[in-house]
């Protein structure tokens, strides 16, 4: 049974890497095989799916759709650009702004919001937008690990390790991932300042975006505030965070319907939710439950421990940089979902508190996806936007910016997590 589980698991990853456009169907098919073959007992199927994570992702994505529709992100970007003297500082400010936005909403959504501003500047100045869009994409990926709602990988960690919103800022009396990511962002921003040091063309004021509906902004802020408040509630239900996100999205939908009176309001807004990611995660939760039940997670954990020879620093280093390597070429969502139970078991085997390895996993997997054009959905989205504008970006061109940026961020995070939590 274990051999069968390993075979299905390996084939799942190969197919996910080979056919990314149908990854949800691949994960669901693999999940069905685990159930049909009896590797995962049918009575455990619902319990291995993290419904809190699923609800958080769905609700947050829905509100982000309303937020983008309100044009508030474009207005904020316009205000930012007005204060910038030249192209170099415009690119830097847009990348920092993209990072700030992506700490609270999906990375792909951030790129879709901010990249058009960089395109507008490039068109006005008759320069290439390539460097600016790449900087925005990789900055969005970087900040995904900063908060509980910043990226799917953060939500996965929060759900698995029972971390609340405030735990990403301060945890067990020490600084959390948010501050570590910010210092990584500072290091990578210094890299961007060097890379764009010659781009000194002056910038003129862009026509300011007009925002007519501020309610989606309040909804997004409401998620943050309510998640913070919920973090202080003891013994709350496991799906509390998910319920907050879904209920606020429902309020947004109802208000939009009452204003527009359009019968297709719900359908149009629900389309903003990335059901591909939700179905992918649902399938992966079942697959991971299956390999755990079959003892595969235990075997992988033992392999890590044997390689590191029970040395905590070595196993931490292995997890961080292996995560960077794998996330450079495969989507970090299935990788993190798989590695969370492995990391927890490694901690048990070594007799250590798992926070060090959990944070190292997230630093390596989330920040490491920046290295290649295919390492993260935000990178693929950014290059897709450039392709529509007639700019084909090769891997060497992308990596000229992404590699030093990523190395600065990951190395900073790698050292800080060890010194704080090691």
Automatic annotation (TrEMBL):
Gene Ontology cellular-component terms listed: plasma membrane
Keywords, ordered alphabetically: Cell membrane, Membrane, Transmembrane, Transmembrane helix, Transport
Transmembrane segments: 48-68, 89-115, 175-196, 217-233, 239-258, 278-297, 313-335, 356-381, 401-421
Residue intervals of the Citrate transporter-like domain: 13-343
Subcellular localization(s) per the UniProt record: Cell membrane
Keyword Membrane attributed: yes
InterPro entries linked to this entry: Arsenical_pump_ArsB (IPR000802), Cit_transptr-like_dom (IPR004680), Diverse_Ion_Transporter (IPR051475)
Topology term for the membrane: Multi-pass membrane protein
Single annotated GO MF: arsenite transmembrane transporter activity
Family stated for the protein in its record: Belongs to the CitM (TC 2.A.11) transporter family.
PANTHER family: P PROTEIN
Full protein name: Arsenic transporter
């Amino acid at each position: 049974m274990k051999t069968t589980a390993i075979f299905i698991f390996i084939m799942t990853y190969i197919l996910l890497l080979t056919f990314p456009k149908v990854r949800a169907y691949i994960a669901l098919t693999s999940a069905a095989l685990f159930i049909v073959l009896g590797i995962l007992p049918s009575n455990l199927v619902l319990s291995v799916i993290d419904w809190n994570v699923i609800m958080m992702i769905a609700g947050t994505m829905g509100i982000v759709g309303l937020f983008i529709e309100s044009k508030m992100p474009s207005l904020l970007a316009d205000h930012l650009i007005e204060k910038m003297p030249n192209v170099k500082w415009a690119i830097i400010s847009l990348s920092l702004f993209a990072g700030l936005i992506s700490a609270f909403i999906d990375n792909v959504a951030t790129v879709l919001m901010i990249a058009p501003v960089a395109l507008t500047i490039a068109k006005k100045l008759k320069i290439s937008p390539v460097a600016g869009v790449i900087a925005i994409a990789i900055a969005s990926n970087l900040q995904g690990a900063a908060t509980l709602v910043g990226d799917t990988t953060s939500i996965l960690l929060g759900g698995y390790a029972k971390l609340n919103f405030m735990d990403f800022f301060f945890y067990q009396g020490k600084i959390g991932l948010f501050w570590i990511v910010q210092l990584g962002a500072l290091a990578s921003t210094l890299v961007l300042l060097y890379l764009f040091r010659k781009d000194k063309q002056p910038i003129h004021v862009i026509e300011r975006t007009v925002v007519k509906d501020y309610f989606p902004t309040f909804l997004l802020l409401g998620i943050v505030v309510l998640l913070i408040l919920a973090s202080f509630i003891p013994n709350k239900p496991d799906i509390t965070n998910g319920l907050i996100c879904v209920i606020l999205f429902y309020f947004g939908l109802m208000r939009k319907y009452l204003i527009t009176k359009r019968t297709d309001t719900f359908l149009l807004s629900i389309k903003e939710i990335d059901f591909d990611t939700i179905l992918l995660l649902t399938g992966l939760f079942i697959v991971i439950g299956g390999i755990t039940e079959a003892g595969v997670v235990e075997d992988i954990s033992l392999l890590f421990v044997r390689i590191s020879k029970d040395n905590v620093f070595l196993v931490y280093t292995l997890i961080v940089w292996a995560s960077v390597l794998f996330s450079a070429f495969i989507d970090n969502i299935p990788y993190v979902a798989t590695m969370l139970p492995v990391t927890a078991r490694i901690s048990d085997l070594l007799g250590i508190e798992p926070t060090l390895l959990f944070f190292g996993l997230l630093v390596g997997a989330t920040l490491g996806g920046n290295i290649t054009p295919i390492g993260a959905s935000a990178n693929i989205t950014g290059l897709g936007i450039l392709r529509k504008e007639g700019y084909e970006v090769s891997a060497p061109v992308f990596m000229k910016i992404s590699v030093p940026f990523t190395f600065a961020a990951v190395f900073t995070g790698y050292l800080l997590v060890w010194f704080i939590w090691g």
